[in-house]
Structure formats: C-alpha cells, structure tokens
Amino acid sequence: MDRVNITAVVGACAPERQQYARRLAAAPPRMLVSAARLAMSPDPLDEALALAPWSDRASGAVVEFPAEVPVARIIGAFAEGAEDLQLREIVCVVDALHLMQELARDDYAVRRVPGRPGIDGIARALLAATQIEFASTVVLVNWEAVETPELSTAMALVSHLAPAARLRLHRDGEDSGSGAAGASGGGFGAAQERPGWVAILNGDFDPHMTDPRVRAFRYEQLRPFHPGRLARLLDERIEAAAFGTVLRSVGFCRLATRPGVVARWDHVGRMISFDPLALDGPAVRFDAARDADDAGVTAELGSEWADAAGLLALGQDLAVIGLDLDVDGLRAALDEAALDDAEFAAGPASWIGLPDPFPSWPGVPHGTR
C-alpha cells in the first residue's frame, strides 16, 4: 500500500507559519491539517497521525504543528508509529525580524506529555532552535524589512544551525510549494544528523553560508567542570556576552561533583539544562532519559548517544555557535571552569564536596547528585 507523503510545517511565529502552510497546501493541492485543529486535542501529535491518513494518497498532506510540539517527537512518531505515513519534508518558517528574539527568550511553553501526569514545560528558545536544526527547508519571511547586513547574519546563523537544510527567502505572491517538496530526499528516519552542532562534533561541519559575525567551534576538555565556577561563568560572563553572544551550545559534559555520569549540555540563548545520559561502564539509561528524548536526543542520534557517552572518558565535548565570539577568550574561560591541578589530583572522593548550585538529577543512583 502506498504511503501518504507528509509535509510538516513548524515555526515559532504562529501567523506566519499558518499563512505559509495554507499556501503550501494550495500548490499543488493537498489536504491541510491546521495547528488550530491539532491544538484542540490533548495530544496534537496523535491527532495529526489520526487525521493525515484521510488525505488523498496521490497528493499527500500538509500538517501545521503548534509551536509547543517538539520537532524531535514529530520525527520519532512518523518514523516509528505510522506505517501508512511518510514524513518527507519539515519546513520551518522563520520570521527574519524576530529570529534573534526567539532564540533569546527565557519563557516556557506549557504542554501535556503523553504517559505522564500533569503538565510539563519546555523552553520556547529550545523549541525554536530545534525546529530550525531539524528542518529540511527553512523559509525566511518578512526579510524585506531587515537591513542587508543583518539579513546576511541571520541567513548565516540559520545555515550554521541547520547546514543540511535548504534556505529560501519567501516572496509574497510566489508559489510556496515550488522547490520545497521532496527536498529531504528519502524522508526522515529515526536517526538524524541534520543539526549543525552534530556536524561540529562529528568534524564535518560545512555551512553553505557564512558571515563575519557568525562563528562556530568545538570545545574539548578532559577534566570535569567545577560546578561552582561553571555556574559563575554562565551567569556572570557568558550570559552578559563577555565573549560575544553564545546562541547555541550542545554536547557532552561532566560535573566533578557527579563522578561517573555523562550529561547532555543543552543551551540556547539564556536557557541551559544538564541531563544525565549514561553511567561509566555498561550502558545504563536513567528515567531522566525521557527528558533527553523531548530535547531531541533519541531522534538526533539514537543509541549513538549512549555509545559516544561511554567513550567520553572524563570531560567535555561541546559545539558552540554564536555572534561576534571571542573564541580564544571563551575557550580559556571554560578551561578555568574545569578542575585545576590540585583539585584534579585530589580525586573523586574530594570532588563530591565541591559547591554545586545545579539542580539534582532524578534517577541518578545513590552516591552521585
């Protein structure tokens, strides 16, 4: 049986996303499942999976998702739980006027999570960043109102976040569907390596567009972080843009007070989180892995995360993307936040007593925080 080809439309700005989805569904004519329709369901993603098969199989369907649905969940659901559906394209609609503001937001979207009681929150800045990172096509709207230097910076930033995506400037009156359908080739599977930060860590980062203001680099450090010094660096210097504006940083890290645990470092703008991924030795996954999955760990690299985490002997492996970055200064500051010679020589039994202002990790075994 032929599968229904699905084009998912995502984006932080609802009016622009809605307008573009309507145009995309009109040329060629396809069934449109709107975000407004999905938002009426307790689980918009389940609703999308139920409605999309009703589309004419020859033309497929355009599904516009509410901003609160993490794009990693969209990819995972279509890859693993929809035998009659094929996710062919993820189009992220980005308002060029508000791109920087969206990545700098410090508020949370409240949502219900299937299988978990109550409600959950996810940073809107993280939602916006991952929508761009996983897109097969990024469409910039309202770009005509942006000065040329700022537009160049915005386009290069998108290219750094999503080097595998096709970048388009939308013009009023043009056929929204032209050149977009099928850009993702064979569609989306459970394992994804689209984000720029994944390419940086893999050593094959090659963005199509560059700009003097936009820089990216990989930071590696064998020693674990001193949590107290790291917190001060984040709060007092990085957030204050002492080294330029760090917009996105992701990777693996270790905190000295939590020996034996590899964590995921996930940072956008003013928001940062650390989630445990694995213990040293045999692969161990925590209950907290559900939070990592919401952030995109499973959809991005699947089991590769656990394998790579096991290979990270002691310290840090981070991808950093930002504007006007003082790369040497930031590297030196991160090095200073790691354990010094005397602290490192004192060993793990001493590290546990160091100041640690970060939240505890649910599910981490006794003896670690």
From TrEMBL:
Which is an annotated Pfam family here?
Answer: CobW_C
Which top-rank group of organisms is this from?
Bacteria
Q: Which residues form the CobW C-terminal domain?
A: 214-338
SUPFAM superfamilies, sorted = Hypothetical protein YjiA, C-terminal domain
Record-linked InterPro entries: CobW-like_C (IPR011629), P-loop_NTPase (IPR027417), Zn_Chap_cDPG_Synth (IPR051927)
Q: What is this protein called?
A: GTP-binding protein
| The species this protein was found in | Leucobacter allii
